[in-house]
Amino acid sequence: LLDGESGTGKELFARSLHALSPRADGPFVAINCAAIPENLLETELFGHEKGAFTGAVARKPGKFELAHRGTLFLDEIGDLPLTLQAKILRALEERQFERVGGTSLLNVDVRVVAATNRNLKAAVAARQYREDLYFRLSVFPIHIPPLRERPGDIPLLATHFVERFARELKKSLVLSPSAIDALVACPWRGNVRELQNCIERA
After folding, report:
1. What are φ and ψ of residue 106, in 5° steps?
2. Phi-psi bin for 29: left (phi > 0), alpha (psi -120 to 50), beta?
3. Lateral strand order in the sheet of 2-3
4. What percentage of the chain reaches a pLDDT higher than 70?
């Protein structure tokens, strides 16, 4: 379970975990649980059978199925609707699930990396999040600190972004020492994403 403010690089961290693991040759499948309407999220995660609902004209595999022998990245897991939390828990515990409208159990070998910018302990205390799912997800919790707490990373990140955008623009660009000092002095409330956007705009 990766937790940290928005823009700290949780998905990049998850991709690195996948790339450096024995599952690197398998798929990395990502889904943002907050970006998909609740009525569609279940079919996105677990798939559906033909005829399961109006418009289901063919069988569709879900993200759990697509991530078989790889890594499934569940971004914004704190926004997962309560109605789906029990099904996610069962899929994690049993390593099996049914497609929407299906009757047969599918077995999957998936390593799940979840991320959130919410305080899940507080959500559990407020009964907005299942305690059993929280404990299942947080077997190995990793906190990614905000950029303002790791100022030593700012020159490295800024230089990386300058070099990247310079290649794209076919220009020769470098950061002056005073520019680096100015960047290190910023609070970066939007974290790495804000820094990247600032360098691109400049």
Report:
1. -105, 135
2. beta
3. 28-32, 70-75, 110-116, 2-3, 142-143
4. 100
Distance CA 36, CA 95 (A): 23
3-state helix, strand, coil in the chain (%, to 5): 45, 15, 40
Confidence category of residue 11, pLDDT binned at 50, 70, 90 = very high
Report the C-alpha gap between 180 and 193 in whole angstroms.
17
Coil, strand, or helix at residue 113? strand
Query: CB atoms < 10 A from the CB of 58, how many?
Result: 8
Please provide the distance, in angstroms rounded to a whole number, between the alpha carbons at the two ends of the chain.
35
What pTM does this model have?
A: 0.86
Report yes or no: 112 and 64 within 8 Å, Cβ to Cβ: no
Using the predicted structure, report yes or no on whether residue 21 has a pLDDT greater than 80: yes
Give dist(CA 36, CA 18) in Å, integer: 24
